[in-house]
Amino acid sequence: MELVSQHVKGIMEECKVRARDAGLRFDDETLEYIVTNRDMIELSPKIMIPTLYDYWVHDVRVLSGKGMYEAYPSNPYETVINTRPAISYYNDNNPDWLNVMIFYHVLGHIDFFQNNLFYKNTWDVDLTGQALADKRLIAKFRSEKGRVVDYVIEFSRGIDNLVGYYRQINHIISKETQQKVNRPDFYFDVFLQRIKGVSHNTYLKEISRYNDCKRTKDDFFAPVIGKYPEFEELFRKEKASKNLRNLDVMEYIIQHSPFLRMDENKWMKTVIQIIRNTAMYFQPQIRTKIMNEGWASYWHEYLFMRDDRICGHESDFAKVNAGVTAMPKVGLNPYALGMRLFQHIEEMEDKGCYSFDYFCQKDEIKKQKYNSLKKSGARYIFKVREDLNDFTFINKYIDQEFLTKHQLFVSGKRFNQDRMSWEYYIKSKKAEDYKRMIIDTLYHPPEIRVEPDKSVKGVLYLNHLFEEKPLKQDFIENTMVGIEYLWGGPIHLETSEPAPESKPASSYTNFWDPATPTPKIPEPQKIKWKRMRYVLENRKLHKREL
Questions:
Q1: Residue ranges per domain, the chain?
Q2: What global pTM score does this model have?
Q3: Which regions of 197-271 does DSSP assign to beta strands (E)?
Q4: Cα gap 22→16, rounded to integer Å
Q5: Are strands 491-498 and 460-464 parallel, antiparallel or unpaired?
Q6: Residue range 461-481, pLDDT digits in tens
Q7: Distance (Å, whole) CA 161 – CA 150
Q8: What does the alpha-carbon distance between residue 464 and residue 241 come to, in Å, rounded to a whole number?
């Protein structure tokens, strides 16, 4: 692996000038490396971070990748990572014209990394430098503690998808902790209404007295404490409970695990924190895959088509671009969907189709011909790029016009008994159904919270906030074993599972007799869910219904 030549670097710098002229914003400093396919295989398990900590799973994936490459050789064009400065890797046999296209694609990614609000927690972090420091620290622990370090890494990585990413982003953007318990809010919303149950008249008098104290700057709570001596203690407990409820699983284990409090185990907290910080850093990339790739594809096509260096390579570009951005009828290509949705948003905004007047139109022909000549789509998509993630992007902007324009649909799969084969068919052409299909493919880890009120007598009580997506039962036991090791006590997990349906007795059918009618396939019934509790103690798992 080596830095690109001065000739190639000059091409990149010229691409930066043209990208900035088009409106993209990114740091001046970037690093570009030339790599071989072997380098790509070795870097991929480490998420392309050369300085990431060593772990045995990485070596297994490298061996697997080498075997796969021998059977199915591939030639990736580029990879870019969100670091300071941004680092990108390019295949060692890319021609100059292809590098121009790829550089535009990479600059689209860098612009997205450095301007989308969901990456705000990464803007002030030097990941490569921090990863190198973490790698050296873990290597030091390995030399002192031995194999147990890898156990801690493995058990921590088993729950690193349960980090409180949105809470951290909310805290960074708002610049104030939303978890903080406010004394007046607790007094009026909890203490007076839920605990004391005062009358409506008394409640209004207290609000009036509070407003008077705000104007005169008198101490509102002095009479409260005199009348209700228990208020301060209840407020303190609520504040402590609120702070506990807002910790994610990894944070709670780091701060409250009896096992990690032991002097000989305190080093484990550092390892768990490294795993958590690394997982938190890559959360925005997982949650913006369609937008990120679509934005980069939009700009590599837009800028390269206006670049004079395309001359003589139009057909080569068309072939490569089609391979990247082809829209499949069945399946999902994030490059194609994201790019075409950005183009659709720009076109709709140019015509003023996101206005109230357009939505009030009932005539379909008038809607198709509607054009207010607003011409603000180019500015609008930059705002979209800044504020949204994949879920809000898909949920807000996939509409019936988009499906009709690109002839998209939701496909279904059924068994043809006459031909004895499976066949695909058009299930729906409605935007809502297509939108739901795409949203179901998005990254959405389970929401599992610690219940401090139930975590007593050495038990860690976890509650799965059910969203009609059950946990994978194959992973429950091994994951809970890892949590039990880090916690040092029994683990309770409350979740939901489908209730077993009572099947009707099937009648005998003679399939060899043509006179026998073919039984109809019953309609699928709505799933009924029941609440279950998994209990793991001394590495033995038990389950019972609640």
A1: 2-116+288-321, 129-176+247-284, 183-245, 326-441, 448-500+526-545
A2: 0.81
A3: none
A4: 10
A5: parallel
A6: 999 998 888 998 889 999 999
A7: 18
A8: 19
